Amino acid sequence: MDFFGRLREERARLGLTQQEVADTANVHVKTVRRWESQVAIPLDAMVPLLGIGYDVQYVASGLRSKNVHELREKGIDYEVAPGSTRDEVEMLKAYRALTPAQRDQARAMLSVLAVKSSGERSPRSAAAAGKAERGEAPAAKGRPRRGKG
C-alpha cells in the first residue's frame, strides 16, 4: 500500500470522517480528499493528526509504531524520542511548563552554554572580532576617560 492509501487507512482505523480530519488540520475537506488521492500532505499538516491518534510513522514509512497506542492508553508522553535519558525527559517536561517568554530565555541560555562548551566564540567576542576586521574601535568599557587638556 502507498502513502496515500495508508493515510486513508489511518483515518478509517480511527473512525474519522474526512470533515473531522479537515477540522483538526484546519483545512478544507477537499484538501483532505486530495491528500488521500495522490497530492502530498505538508509535514506541518501532519502534526495535528498526531493529536487525534494517527500513527504518522506508519503513514510515512509503512511500519507501525510498535507501542504508540499502548503508551497513550497508559498516559505516557510519546513525544519524547526513544533512547532519551531520564534527565532529558525531565528537562522537556519542565520546558513545556514554561511560559513563551520563559522558553525564549531558556533557549537563549542553552545556546550560550552550547557555544561555550563547543569552544566557539561567544556572540559578544564574535561581534568584537567583526568590528576589528572592519577596522572599527572596540566599544569602551565603563565610564569614558577624561583626557588632559
Automatic annotation (TrEMBL):
HTH cro/C1-type domain boundaries: 7-42
Lineage: Bacteria, Pseudomonadati, Pseudomonadota, Gammaproteobacteria, Lysobacterales
SUPFAM superfamilies per record: lambda repressor-like DNA-binding domains
Pfam annotation, one family: HTH_3
Protein name as annotated: Helix-turn-helix protein
Species annotation: Tahibacter aquaticus
GO MF terms held by the record: DNA binding
Region (Disordered): 115-149
